[in-house]
UniProtKB/TrEMBL annotation:
Domain of life, per lineage: Bacteria
UniProt xrefs under SUPFAM superfamilies: OMPA-like
Domain Outer membrane protein beta-barrel: 18-143
Presence of the UniProt keyword Signal in the record: yes
InterPro entries: Beta-barrel_OMP, OMP/PagP_B-barrel
Signal peptide: 1-19
Gene source species: Tenacibaculum lutimaris
UniProt entry tagged with the keyword Signal: yes
Keywords noted in UniProt: Signal
Protein name: Outer membrane protein with beta-barrel domain
């Protein structure tokens, strides 16, 4: 088991060291969770294949006496089809972990849940400059309480 973990870690470090890395920020809207903000990275595995981890925080509903937190942790694989010099489309598939917590100041109540699921969707990239790329995505998050998520933002090439 220890050798497997070390091998996976070594492969991950190698991919990061020899890949073009992008980092960015995005606005996200989920049909069940509402509006949020996120951070995202992209690591080249090959010229057309990329791995993209992200973290999204969804703004809580304004309910007096109730505090909520909703976050998603995701890792998607993208396969790019370059349509023009600056424009490309990609299907995506990946995994997600959805975390939600709720607490009430009226009653001594708090609860949290963590659910695992799949992401299926697609996106588009538009190269704004040598270092900046705009992106938009739509994906179905298949988990307990599945939803469609719209995502748009900007990535910066390191």
């Amino acid at each position: 088991m220890r050798k497997n973990v070390l091998t996976i870690l070594a492969l991950f470090v190698t991919v990061i060291a020899f890949s073009q890395t992008k980092v960015g920020a995005n606005v996200v809207y989920g049909t069940s969770s509402g509006l949020g903000l996120g951070v995202k990275a992209s690591f080249d595995v090959s010229e057309k294949f990329k791995i993209s981890p992200s973290v999204n925080y969804y703004f809580p509903e304004d309910i007096p006496g109730v505090s909520t937190t909703s976050m998603s942790f995701e890792a998607d694989a993208h396969y790019f089809f370059e349509l023009q010099d600056k424009f490309s489309l990609y299907p995506l598939a990946g995994l997600n972990v959805w975390y939600t917590s709720v607490s009430s100041s009226y009653a001594a109540f708090s609860a949290s849940s963590t659910n695992f699921g799949l992401n299926l969707g697609g996106g588009a990239n538009y190269k704004l400059s040598d270092k900046l790329t705009g992106f938009s995505e739509i994906k179905l998050m298949v988990t307990q309480g599945s939803q469609v998520v719209f995502n748009a933002g900007v990535m910066y090439s390191l």
